[in-house]
Amino acid sequence: MKTTSSGLTGVVLVLVMVVLVLSSLFWFLYQGWGDLEERAEQADVRATRIGDLEQELGQMSASLTAVQATRDALTTALDEAIEAHQVAEAETIQEQEAKDLLATQVATLTQQLQVANQSLSAAQDIPLVTILFPGTDSVVPLTEAVEILAVAADDSGLDTVYVGRDGEVVAVAADGAPLYEVRMEWTPGSIGEHTVVITAVNISLIASQPVSVTFQVVDTEGETAVASLTNTAHPARQAGAATLLPFAGPGAVAALLFGRRVSNALPDHFGHARHHRRQRRLGRGE
Predict the structure, then answer these.
(1) Are the CB atoms for 184 and 145 separated by under 8 Å?
(2) Dihedral through CA 25, CA 29, CA 31, CA 34, nearest 10?
């Protein structure tokens, strides 16, 4: 009996030890599983955060690209504005220089007129007239208005200044001024020779000698087209023709084409010749 009892006690002790070992193992595994689960959750949180950061980085990259594009556009617009300002400033300087030169010429001529007037006696005093623009034999494009600029002077005072434009007379009241500047624009409207005649009358109704200038009005666009045809027909003359034709007048162009001198007073005949050549080219389908 004692032997049996001892064997059962041993078995019970073994079973208790096994239960203790299994309990310890289960407890160890349970503790380890909690750590693994916590680490897994932390990994998920980190992955989610990384995804959010990558999305924010993409948005920031797109915003940066848009800002750079805007900056480039603004830089280009600023460069264009600076260039336009520089061009406008240069043109303004050139215009001011031209005005200053003209004012200097007017002042010089005014002084000359005053000196000349002082040397004349009252009995011989007649108004003096000087035409500054247009110049004699100057060339003006057909599409541009001609600026008429003249100065009239008389010690006793000027009553009226008469400006004749191809026979059409315009009277300008001087109101007794001893020095009067005439400034007006005129568009002749046709090619060829045109004449401006100016006469001044003082308050004693003494008239000056008529002062006139004759200038040429040319069709620069038509002459440029003829110059192009001439350069094609005569390559050796290209350099000289391209430079001189727009200013030479229709007579010079005709002389170049036909090898003889033709008067500049024949613009209509020259225009008919250009018309016939254009019709022949159209007929050939050129």
Answers:
(1) no
(2) -170
Is this prediction's pTM over 0.70? no
Place of tokens 């200053």: 100
- Running DSSP on this structure, what letter comes out for residue 145? P
The CATH code of the domain at 120-218 is 2.60.40.10
| One-character DSSP codes across 228-241 | HHHHHH-GGGHHHH
pLDDT, tens digit, 9 for 90 and up, residues 213-223: 999 999 877 55
CA 80/CA 140 separation, integer angstroms? 34
Reduced DSSP (H G I as helix, E B as strand, rest coil) percent helix, strand, coil of the chain, to 5: 60, 20, 20
Domain ranges of the chain: 37-119, 120-218, 220-284
Cα dist. 68→54, 64, 72, 81, 197 in Å? Answer: 21, 6, 6, 20, 66
Got the DSSP string for 156-188? T-EEEEEEEETTEEEEEE-TT-SEEEEEEEE--
Residue 195 CA to its chain's centroid (Å): 35
- In whole angstroms, what is the distance from residue 152 CA to residue 177 CA? 10
Do 169 and 162 contact (CB within 8 A), yes or no? yes
Largest CA distance in the chain: 181
List 164's β-bridge partners, or say none: 169, 197
> Cα–chain-centroid distance for residue 159?
45
Residue 42 has pLDDT above 50, yes or no: yes
- Tell me the pLDDT band of 263, cut-offs 50, 70 and 90: very low
